[in-house]
Amino acid sequence: MSGRIRSVTTVMLTLVGAAFVVAPPQAHGFAEDICYTPGGAPPHNCAPLPPPCPVDDPNGPLCGLEAFVRYGYTLTQPLGGRSLVHSDSSYIIARSVGFSEQDAYWIGAYDEATDLGTFVPRDVRGAPVPDAAALTTADISGLVRTHFATGGFLFHFLPTMRGPADPQPDGLRPDVNDPNSEVMLTHVRRWAMAGPGSDAPLCTGGFTNPSAHGDYATGATCYDEPAPATINGTYSVVSPIAIPFTNMTGQQVISDGVTSSQFDSWVGAASWNARIGIYLHALADRISHHVCTDAGTVTAPTPESPEFRIDLNTPTCDQGPHAVRHEYETGVGFADVAAEDHTTEATLSMVYDELTEFARIRGTLDANALAPDAKSALIQDGLLPALQNRNPVERMAAVTAVGCRFGVPPFPGSPACRG
What we know:
This protein is an alpha+beta fold.
């Protein structure tokens, strides 16, 4: 290792360590790419990939350090921002497969709120839209990516239950029907599909009492046999340096003083759409973070060790490469990105499939969504090219234009359809 690289790595470790003293490292999955600029100026890129950084090698320490610092800056922005993947794209896909405009909006809004705690729609100049109060989500800050104490972190980093010697899963296309391995993902999906008023629980870490089939994801109640268990985990800062976190099994905390059994009354009429949005966020982040969570493991309690253990202390979870990979997800040419980092395409493809299934369950499915070329026309020929625009204003306009071509009104705050 050259002296130059060694010194940069040392600086990075020092900065990360200093940041960790104040707060846990940030957990971004499709982090906000549109950041609003104070003073009414046009939005800016939250954390663009620096021009000298390659799009097929996230492991360079210089790029990792810069990416980490940029994302720290993003979280300090007074007006915040939004992700065109979590919000606008989810909204456009939901409307295209048969959800009403209102339902599609709330799906996209709660998808975004899972990162932010509360989502307020803003126009391109950062001002709340005229009817913002009616379009603002309920507070769901217990699910936020930086909240380790509530278990919110685990809606964004979803490792699989397997032994260290078991083969790694393919997180670019996670199996949403495998509760034995994809515990958190299948748990949140089941809760979302069950809808308001159902008995399906939403549990911290996704851990239930064993189901009739023996899995820990789809049991009738949150894990408490013979008593609530500790969830002990580690999450890599710069391997082997890791942050420990601890939770207890039980109902998921939604907001201060609100647990998951109160979710429907807390959110109100939009609760089923909110459930779907939260699930789509977990799905997108499972894919976005797959190089980390594919390597991570979850182990179940045993008589000798009566706790759930989550191990995310792996080099693929290190904060530098983690941040760089998020800069590959919008505003770059996707053709140049390494195959394992084609997370935007993989996510939008699965979001389309899952929203089609949810629309079928809700009885709103548009049969045209099942046409042979419908998905590729919207995703491959529409949203993916639009999301590659490096300029944030042009990127937002291009994503909106895709929706307009498919008869979808602009997401609140986006530019109007033309022509």
